[in-house]
Amino acid sequence: MQPPIIPANPKANYLAYKDEIEEAIQQVLASGYYLLAEQTQSFEREFAQYIGVDHAIGVGSGTEALHLALRATNIGQGDEVITVSHTAVATVAAIELAGAEPRFVDIDPVSYTMDPNQLSQAMTSRTKAIVPVHLYGHPAKLDQIRAFADTHNLIVIEDCAQAHGATYQGRICGSWGDLAAFSFYPTKNLSALGDGGMVVTNNEQLAQRVRLLQQYGWEERYISSVPGLNSRLDEMQAAILRVKLRHLDDDNMRRAEIACRYSGGLTGASVELPSASSDVRHAFHQYVVRSQGRDQLQKTLREEGIITLIHYPVPVHLQPAYRNRIPLLLPLPNTEEAVKQILSLPLYPELPDDHVETVIKHVRH
After folding, report:
1. pLDDT of residue 26
2. What is the pLDDT of residue 189?
3. Which end of the chain has fewer CB within 10 Å, C or N?
4. What is residue 54's DSSP assignment?
5. Distances in Å between the alpha carbon of 175 and those of 65, 192, 248, 283?
6. CA-CA distance, 68 to 35, in Å (whole number)?
7. Do residues 24 and 235 lie in contact, with contact meaning Cβ atoms separated by under 8 Å?
8. Using an 8 Å Cβ cutoff, are 163 and 134 in contact?
9. What is the mean pLDDT of residues 143-158?
10. Distances from the Cα of 232 to the Cαs of 216, 286, 288, in angstroms?
11. Where are the alpha helices (DSSP H) in 56-140?
């Protein structure tokens, strides 16, 4: 019995860089410093340089990165934040953690990202920010979103949890917004061996505000100048992420190669393939197809030892925790149709070519 073909494989990514990662871990263990020390500071500098921004602040998770970015701009009780319902729940959880209220717009049915044409319909006198999500690694239409936000004096906070290394119009995701939030969850393109996140910005005051909020509001130790929380990237994860950051572009190239193989092999099959507009570099965090017979396709693949996932099976506005609680200002037909048809095929940099061909064979069957 062959082992199953799995959708993601964090262990394979560790093994790919095992010697470098274990050396980095040993350095941390031997240093005696395990929080907010040399490894975190170095990773923050290196990640800021990679994104092309002035400031990066390591935090406890991607959810906390978005939460702290919102808090840093003084968004809170009574404010509204426009985002999408077709996203990980973390996006909406972070908005509510900040005390604000999410307001949903629909997605573009091809890129699965925010439809900027709906922003004017979703905006009210209480709207303070827009959170576009670069879902699956495809950038949202950042030029249109940025232009709308600037016209209406709104904050833009990019949700880059799935878009490490993606670009829009030649400019890397994370550098378009007033702030951006990244996740380093173990299955991300840039992944920790645990949890972690990062807030990036070009605004020094916002960066200082995030740093203040991330550790109890301390300007000096044990003295809180504002109410804060505890959200720190630890030294071990920072050291591991420094290793993996050096390999991110190569890993993304491999993801793109696998996506190209899928697209070539599945052309003419009874599934709709993902596409990237000419002005983007897709990070291919996921390779998502659409099928009218999605559930049967997923069942058939599972029987052949191919494990697939649905990102995401229920839009946030229809989930039990949020249904009938967050008012819909607009219908979301593209969102509600997509979740019935989408299927994420296995995709990670170490996925063997023969596994890719096996997936293609059984999707076509």
Report:
1. 98
2. 98
3. N
4. S
5. 15, 22, 17, 15
6. 18
7. no
8. yes
9. 98
10. 11, 28, 33
11. 62-72, 89-97, 119-122
